[in-house]
Amino acid sequence: MNENDWRFVKKRTAADGAVYVSADTTRYRRTGGAELQAEGEFQRRIAGRGYPVPRVLEEGVTDDGRYYVVEESLGDQTLHDRAVASLDGSQHMTDDVAITAGHVAVRLLQAQAAHFVQPAPGTLRQWLDSAGFTENVFQENPDLDTTRTHAALEHALERLGTVPLVEGHLDYGLPNVLPAGVIDWQHHGLVPLGYDVLPALEIIAFKGGSKGYTASLDQRLRYLAALDDASLNATGQPVSQNLGAYLLVKALFFLALMRPTDLSRTDKHLKWQYRRHLFTEGLEQYERTGTVDTALFPRLQDFAAGHRPGDHP
Ligand SMILES: Nc1ncnc2c1ncn2[C@@H]1O[C@H](COP(=O)(O)OP(=O)(O)O)[C@@H](O)[C@H]1O
Ligand SMILES: [Mg+2]
Asked: What pLDDT was estimated at residue 261?
């Protein structure tokens, strides 16, 4: 196959680069800068540790000085694609998708639990700041930069103080999961065990219903039970006890970079207000119960019904 046999798939969501697929669809090629080189190295390392990730087949520099990485394809449908395709009038994904999500999550968790990383002091706090984009969130939402917010985050950090740190994905969710493994490691870094996989079915709620599917209570409980089984075996601790702390950080993550610079964009303004609402609701739940039940979040359209464009603060 020659260089021209690559079909453009998309620009990369959070990086300066693009994704291409080979004409026979057996391989994917990403282009980018130095960060892609680091991503490729990371992926090789964790593949060597038994993580369910695509094998890196080739790396190098393009004619125009960009970096590229070629990896094997893990299949033609992500679990997000499958959840959308299998909708049959109900808003819940089919059990098959939820169960497959559980299998992949268990494989990733087991590989992570078999390779703890010795943390330097401050590593857990660095994880919180990068995973939660705290600097950006407090800059865009100074009214949330309160002793109350910080008290909850300190509480979460304390609770996570004894959780082992592992090499993680940091953008784990059904769009990056296929039955054969996990793709798109651009945000890789150290995470407390369970941070990647535990919230995967919960974070769908942050999209406000726009994905077209959700996970039912039963699907979510079975998913968490499968992860607890795996972590009890590997570490003696049930990982799901940390779900609340992780969802508090996810509520920050989903609020990051949401404040529109163009105030006439009422659609963007509404989404920003929605995510502010979810953060505040998550914080309240966390304070009250020590966890966050995303099923209690309003859908975007219900939230919008109570917020007209004229409601700008
Ligand atoms: N190794 C792979 N196997 C199967 N599909 C892939 C693979 N790599 C990329 N894809 C497909 O390409 C899409 C974009 O790749 P991804 O790295 O996730 O980009 P982004 O950073 O924009 O999310 C994925 O959602 C998936 O559909
Ligand atoms: Mg992706």
From this structure: 92
- Kindly state the tokens that stand for 57: 């087949």
* Overall domain count for the chain: 2
Q: What is the pLDDT of residue 15?
A: 80
Same domain, 127 and 24: no
Domain ends where: 72, 106, 131? 72
Pocket test for ligand 1, best of 6, 24, 27, 28 (most atoms within 8 A of CB): 28
Query: What pLDDT is stored for residue 4 in this prediction?
Result: 58
Residue 2 confidence (pLDDT): 58
pTM, two decimal places: 0.94
* Residues 107 and 250 both lie in one domain: yes
Is residue 8 lining ligand 1, measured as CB closer than 6 Å? no
73 lines ligand 1 (CB under 6 A): yes
Question: Is 19's C-beta closer than 6 angstroms to any atom of ligand 1?
Answer: yes
Which parts of the chain sit beneath pLDDT 70? 1-4, 307-313
Which domain, by its residues, includes 274?
79-311
Q: Is the CB of 12 under 6 A from ligand 1?
A: yes
d(CA 27, CA 214): 30
Cβ-Cβ contacts under 8 Å for 92 (sequence gap 6 or more):
213, 214, 215, 216, 219
Q: Is the CB of residue 257 below 6 angstroms from any atom belonging to ligand 1? A: no
Q: How many whole angstroms separate alpha carbon 20 and alpha carbon 9?
A: 5
- Report the alpha-carbon distance of residue 191 to residue 169 in Å, rounded: 8
Span from the CA of 129 to the centroid of ligand 1 (angstroms): 26
> Of ligand 1's atoms, which has the minimum distance to the CA of residue 72?
1
